[in-house]
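Lecture 7, part B: from sequences to assemblies.

Below are the input chains for today's worked example.
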Amino acid sequence: MSAKVSRLSDVARTAEVSVATVSRFLNNRLQLPEETAARIRRAVAEHEYTPNPHARNLSLGRSETIALVVPDIANPYFARLAAAVEREAGQQGYALTLCASLNTLQREREYIARLSGSAVDGIIFVSNHADDGTLRDPINASSRRVVILDEDVGGVVGPRVFSDNELGGYLAGRHLIEMGHRSIAFFGGPQAMRSTEARLAGIRRAIAESNQHVVIRDEFFGAYSPEHGRACASRFLSSGSEATALLVSSDEIMIGALEIFRREGIRLPSQLSVIGFDDIAPFVLFDPPLTSIRQPVEMMGRRAVDLLIRSLRGEDLDRVIEYLPVELILRGSVSHPRAGKRLPPSADNQKEGNEHDEIDA
Amino acid sequence: MSAKVSRLSDVARTAEVSVATVSRFLNNRLQLPEETAARIRRAVAEHEYTPNPHARNLSLGRSETIALVVPDIANPYFARLAAAVEREAGQQGYALTLCASLNTLQREREYIARLSGSAVDGIIFVSNHADDGTLRDPINASSRRVVILDEDVGGVVGPRVFSDNELGGYLAGRHLIEMGHRSIAFFGGPQAMRSTEARLAGIRRAIAESNQHVVIRDEFFGAYSPEHGRACASRFLSSGSEATALLVSSDEIMIGALEIFRREGIRLPSQLSVIGFDDIAPFVLFDPPLTSIRQPVEMMGRRAVDLLIRSLRGEDLDRVIEYLPVELILRGSVSHPRAGKRLPPSADNQKEGNEHDEIDA
DNA sequence: AGCGTCTTGTAAACCGGTTACGTGGGATTG
DNA sequence: CAATCCCACGTAACCGGTTTACAAGACGCT
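Predicted structure of the full complex, as structure tokens:
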């Protein structure tokens, strides 16, 4: 089938020069008189020569490959991130290998270990669980070759890129307060994480600036998962909370929460205003269309790649942290608080469908 | 920072044997008396030795890495596929490199070229546009190292994994007919593609089996994109089509179409019943929850990896084609056809929200 | 004693590039 | 005219593994 692949030496022989000459010529490390250059070009074409990447990697000590470690690629948020990272990496001449950590320290460490084995040149590292310290040391040990993305890992030095979570919390909080809400619930991610803290801090700043008496009523923390969303929503409803508005810290949590609200016949936004976070899912088409904080996912991916590659080239980026701006996307899931009292969940107030509330302009 | 990484020779020196002995011992190609074995094991541990992958790859001529070529990773459908592929590959000891083709032949060919350069051992190839023949030859030239997934590429020999698109069309068609629809519209993918043809063929089989007079009214073909979905929906509405039901060939197309239907105030399912295809997006939460054909995405990914790896090991799988079963997920977007006449689109029948129809059991 | 056969191991040739160093010859310079 | 420099390229040593070919010693057998 495919003819034997040609090697550098084949080209050299045909061009009647040494392998060194061909290698250096092809890598632009050598000016040659046009005649010789043409001979080499002709030989390359004739043999359809492409350098063997394994040999090149071994010789060069690098592979022009970076790894992206994410908890789960099927998650649309990480998928978008991965797409952006792949794109930018590709443009810079790097291939991308994909690693799903499933949020386990075990696998995360394994992937970092690939660095020292130099299977990949660098890693973009996204985790979304708290670190017990196990991650910090191996990451720091391979300094200049890791950038942290999306969620901080305590104690590592090195370039980091995040979305501006505090701003997200702030924008959401301000909007809710402006709409008249005075009691706000928060379905957060894992408690110990910087992003969760920052979002909460943002809400608090909005409260402080408002000069109103606003309280954060029900704070629930847990995994970025529909399960956690369902749990939050159930606890929220059965607590009989007086909160009239809700900030939900991720699409995944939102999806779970909405399932429960729908099942329990909670009408949005008249009985409860909600704001999402991430805005990756097609929230325009939800019932109602969801107002949401949008994360700058594409830009995060690109910035991370850029920092990593510059870092690999030797720049000292250890102190750089980028916070990329989020946006508030206004849709139909926030209204003024109304008197519509929510019922605690029970077996018999489940409805087949639910009515779509009118939306306040 | 990190101490110099150790090489095989370091281990050999410490263990007081030759490198060949260590290598063969570590690769289980040599039985050694316990005493020697222990010395080597101790030396390995002491040096924290891991073989240099580049050297290994060069020597072995393979890299235990496969590539997944998809049009776009951000697309949740491909993201799910990628997750499944990564998972299965990882379990079989293979790394996965991710390649976004953006549906361009140019890039698809580049990625296939990486095979002959042996940057990767094999490729799982997903395209979703028709091939003009350019793909067939390079793929066939690297036989035993490519598996085609999800959408056929004309003329290639080699293992292939698809979902059972014909069955999908059939299940959708049968359901619609059973619900009383006699005029069905079809928003398809690209016309020339096998998957599109198969789905249409499925509907036709359902019609034939029904012994009813059923017609397929508006067939629109185009890209798997929201834009195409919007275009389909606009043309469909302005054509004043009499179709009472609609099969939409992908989540992406559906998302675009729903935008238009919503904007034009079309009520689902009373004015129009719809069935989706893919069922990756959280359609439960849509308005109304969407009935949909679900593709066996996880299984497709796993099967593709399995076939590829067996193929790499030399098995002759050139004739195997797997069709994996789809399911019909019943939700709320299909009802009996009603008299509710749809209005052609105009500037003044746009509504802010839309009412949620009751759903027929 | 002589011989075949394990066992245990070594030396060296690969894999296919990159690159430090060297060299012959013509042009330039003191 | 010798010394120097530059051009155009060659030689060979890497990179760090795997693997083939082969050898020395132990052991058993005749």
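Note for the exam: Confidence is low (pLDDT under 50) at residues 346-361 of chain B. Keep this in mind when comparing with the next example.
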